[in-house]
Amino acid sequence: MEQPSFLAYRNYRYLKITGLVITAALIAYLLARPAGGAAYGGTIFGYALGIASALIVLVLTWYGIRKRRPPKVPERREADRRKFADTDATRCQSNRRVINAEESWRHGTTLQGWLSMHVYLGIALVVLTSLHAGFRVGWNIHTLAYVLVLLVCLSGLYGTYAYLRYPRLITENIGEESLDDLLLKISEADELATHRATDLPSEVKTLVSRACRDTRLGGKFIQQISGRQHDCPTKLAVERLRELGKELVDGDQPRLIRDLYTVLLQKQRLVDMVRKEISLNARMRFWLYLHAPLSIALLAALLAHILTILIYW
């Protein structure tokens, strides 16, 4: 049975709460806005929205800290584990399942709820800060804080998309195999290809040598994201061997070329799988390179924003 998404946590609890908060804020904004005048953060309503937005930022930041803290396991539970280790295997496995289920409920489900709240509060934060600013921007620290809010929330939405989409694609790409398994198979294919090219012309040996030596997996961050290598030697070798297989018709060389072609074609499939695996993982990590630094910058800008208001209030 497929697990429900964290976005649907407790029947979309936080989506409903966020909807109510945004609706209430919009109604209050329309009612509090001066007739014919422009709303801005210096009004009582603007301060209320600013305080609420600052609190939301702190809550969202706390989630980033909390999810990196390992769950505390009570000493009694550790004692139970040691006791279970002395019993027979069947009973031990049964007791571990009970403990793991309890830990999942206490920690996993709680963190899933925090993540759901984190996403929906981020959406609410965009609306509240926009209303707090009265949609007025300028070249100042206040606008910088507002822009950072937007960037942090946008990067967070990308992270939500990435963690909902890419894990499934990774599973579909390599199945039950690991990245190490694929790399081992590629190494074995290189050895087999080198062996089968022994009795073939020097052109073929050169193609195989380049395919084994110069085929890159990963590389720089941009290359990891794209999952490609320009003029991949393995791909070029496969294409050239396909042509040679059509040109040669006499002797044993056509058969040897076909056998070598089959090996390199299998290697190319493995290389494509590894590159896709690296690319998908890089795309999942990419948002962290933006989200975490932007969050720190937002906290600094928010502090400067608040201090500026207190000094010139």
Sum this structure up briefly:
The protein is mostly helical.
Structure description:
The chain is mainly α. It folds into two domains: about 200 residues, no CATH class; about 110 residues. It is about 80% helix and about 0% strand. Helix 1 packs parallel to helix 4 and helix 9 packs antiparallel against helix 10.
Number of domains: 2
Helical amount: over 70%
Average pLDDT, all residues: 82
Structural class: mainly alpha
**Topology pattern, helix = H, strand = E:** HHHHHHHHHH
Strand count: 0
Taken from the alpha-carbon principal axes, the silhouette is elongated
Round the Cα radius of gyration to an integer and report it.
29 Å
Helix and strand arrangement:
Layout: H1 9-32, H2 44-66, H3 75-85, H4 89-133, H5 141-174, H6 179-196, H7 202-214, H8 221-226, H9 233-247, H10 253-312
List the main descriptive attributes of the protein structure presented here.
313 residues, mainly alpha, 2 domains, 10 helices
